[in-house]
Amino acid sequence: MTTVIDASAAGRTPGRRNPINRLFMEPEARPRRGWRLAAYLVILLVAMGVVGSATRGSLVANVAGHAVIAVVALMTTYGFRRYVDRRPWHPIGLSAWRWRHAVSGLTAGAASMLIVFATAWALGWARVSGTEIAERGPAAVLVLLGAGLFMYATSAFVQELAFRGYALQTLAEGWPLRRAALVSSLMFAVLHFAEVPTSAWFVLVLLADIMCMAGFFVLTRLSTGALWLAVGFHTTWNWVMDYVLSMDTDAGADYGDALVHVRLHAPELGLGPGGGVELLYLLNSSALFAGYWLLLRRRRVRTMEG
């Protein structure tokens, strides 16, 4: 990954610094990357919590809240990059709109989730029991699907901007790229544990699943030089899971208001309800990561690291 060096500081030999300065500041007079990254994530998480609490309970307000969070994330990332890190903006991966990457990601994300559903159905772990159209009507379902697509698109944009954009770039400007990718992916995975895990086995499976998916997103970021393929894939993977198929293992009796009502009958396998589906997600993420990595090696695609 390209590391940008401030030419004004490159030839300057830092003088003696006291321990407090060494703890918090780099020789170039910017906060250390760990403090910058921690402050950045805290600001985003607080903003998401405040906006989420203020817009809860209404679909229109929820859609508006997601738009606000996306704008806040973009402004925060730009502000940190230019005025705290004092680094160029373009390495973040949003400098140019890559519509082909976005369309490829949207298509691949939807197809990947449909493959998981088809596998679960073939194993007898998933059964279609109806559709939301029969309960709400076509117009209401269309509105729901459109709102869900927008919310997942903005959510994917924020997450990719934060972890494959700012976090990965910040860590890579001083660390080997592999370590930066591993740490940024681990942070991404840990922040997905919204509830207390049911068992150590569940933690291991879910952590491996999210880490493999994050690794796949990192590879798309490095090979394309932009975030758009990852944003597209992230969007439709979650959208098809929750709004098209009720494949979320936590979906309640209302099937999560998904278009197709899918009831899961997978064995628990020590993972809780729907545990078998969680293993399918892990296999899918592992195949995506390994397959894309092998494809890049076979084609000898040069990444940003070279």
Would you kindly provide a written description of the structure presented here, covering whatever features stand out?
Mean pLDDT is 87; it is low at 1-15. This protein is mainly α and 306 residues long. It has helices at residues 7-10, 19-24, 33-54, 59-84, 99-122, 133-136, 138-172, 177-190, 200-224, 228-244, 275-299, and strands at residues 126-131, 260-264. Helix 5 packs across helix 11 and helix 7 (138-172) packs across helix 9 (200-224).
Which short descriptors sum up this protein?
single chain; 306 residues; two-stranded antiparallel ribbon; 66% helix
Quick structural overview:
The chain contains 11 helices and 2 strands, in the order αααααβαααααβα.
